[in-house]
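Risk register update: the risk of archive-format incompatibility is retired. Evidence:
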Amino acid sequence: MAAGEVSIDGQVVDSGEARVSVFDRGFLYGDSVFEVFRTYGGVPFGQREHLERLQRSADRLMISMPVSVETLSSEVAATLEAAGEGEWYVRVVITRGTGPLTYDPSTATTPLRVIIAAPVSVPPADHYERGIAVALLHASRPTDDERASGAKASNYLANLLAVHEAKQKGAQEALMLGRRGQILEGASSNLFIVKDGVVRTPERQTGILMGITRAAVLAAAATEGIGVEEGEVRPEDLYDADEAFITSSIREVMPVVSADGRTIGPGAPGSVTKRLHEAYLRTVAQATGAGV
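Archived output:
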């Protein structure tokens, strides 16, 4: 069992001692919402934004938040304090709770909250130095439905299968395509392309989760005076881009150098990508006080 600590309904226990009922709907049906963020110098980055989005996800799926965002923040702090020194991957999960074996969500009335602090596993340095490959795939996900759109729900089976297929193709991330063939997002990331010095990223639409890291990068681009457009991004736009990158809490700003076996730009991380990653790290350092 990996090192770390877990908080269940406010009670912190060693990770090896954490237990949740097999009748919990999060386990049975993926009937839960979650957020993931990481620490820098032991301090969480973007925690407030992540927990507020968790609240919105729960509202979207009609899961009653059992405690306030402020209480959750205190419980994250207690979990990290128990975990001790080091850098931590933090996952906060709210499930609908336990109930009878039925699809009817109204039969569960006591939501469960779980906070996991596990050692953070960052991507290899080589991925930032040389870039990664992506594969474009079609997948039908629960959050592609208007009723669940915008929620960070735990039912990630379609994403997991897409990543597996991408790995079989020699890629490190899967990019999901929408019904019109447009690129939506990565299986666990947001996409950006760069053309003629201008950054472009898919606009808000069904099937896209507006990432917290995405927002931080957009803010960094504005600070750096880099032009940004939000609009449709199609496969041919990616293939023809000068640069491309994906963003997520753990990856930060990850350069993409090929898609579906086609080389993007010169086939190496570009200057705009590097500049935005550096700006993002300055944002992190300012917010956490960590030297990153």
